[in-house]
Write a structure and sequence with these properties.
The protein is α/β, with parallel strands linked by helices. It has helices at 2-27, 32-39, 81-85, 87-96, 99-102, 119-126, 139-144, 173-184; strands at residues 51-54, 57-58, 69-76, 105-112, 132-134, 154-158, 163-166. The chain has a 7-stranded mixed sheet with strand order 2-1-5-4-3-6-7. 19% of the residues are buried.
């Protein structure tokens, strides 16, 4: 009898703790509409200096001032960078842009390598031939206070760096459709 009482009490405590954690976790997350609404129309500030690399080699950073649109992708190196970045998806998206709009779009990849991750090896292995910005001081994030959730760390910007759309199309292809539709207007 005593044993049954302790098991019931333990189950009740676990249920209470789980409910508390779930509510606390839910309270710390923003609704997608709130995040998007907060970011639409904001102007992104870019760091004045960032190290640019292509396949691990330092290269001059390219200006995108002549492009009508930028797709900004911010990634930190927490967890699995190759899983989070989804390089194959980005390469596919770039191929999908037809020639009439591809010339108006610049992809800007910013990486904040928090730990000693070797991004160059990843880019070589994936044959990712894009100039990427290695932001060792996380300046892009500090200047803009980017959302913490990776699904909101991707932006479609106009030529003045104003946010037109928010969302990571590698996580939801409907977002890619919105990006393309907006670019084609």
């Amino acid at each position: 009898m005593k044993y049954k009482y302790n098991v019931n009490l333990l189950c009740l405590l676990i249920l209470a703790a789980t409910t508390y954690c779930a509510c606390k976790s839910h309270a710390n997350t923003q609704e997608p509409e709130d995040v998007v609404t907060a970011w639409i129309g904001k102007t992104i500030s870019f760091p004045p200096s960032a190290l640019c690399q292509e396949l691990g080699e330092i290269v001059p950073c390219k200006s995108s001032a002549d492009k009508k649109y930028k797709i900004l992708v911010y990634t930190d190196s927490i967890g699995c960078v190759s899983c989070n970045l989804r390089i194959d998806e980005w390469k596919r998206f770039e191929r999908e842009l037809d020639s009439s709009i591809a010339q108006h779009v610049d992809f800007q990849f910013y990486f904040f390598p928090k730990k000693n991750s070797n991004l160059a090896d990843l880019f070589k292995r994936e044959n990712f031939r894009k100039v990427v910005h290695i932001d060792q001081e996380d300046t892009l994030n500090k200047l803009n206070d980017l959302p913490k959730d990776m699904q909101y760390q991707c932006f479609l910007l106009d030529q003045n760096d104003k946010v037109l759309l928010v969302g990571n199309p590698t996580l939801n292809t409907s977002i890619w459709d919105l990006y393309v539709k907006t670019i084609k207007k």
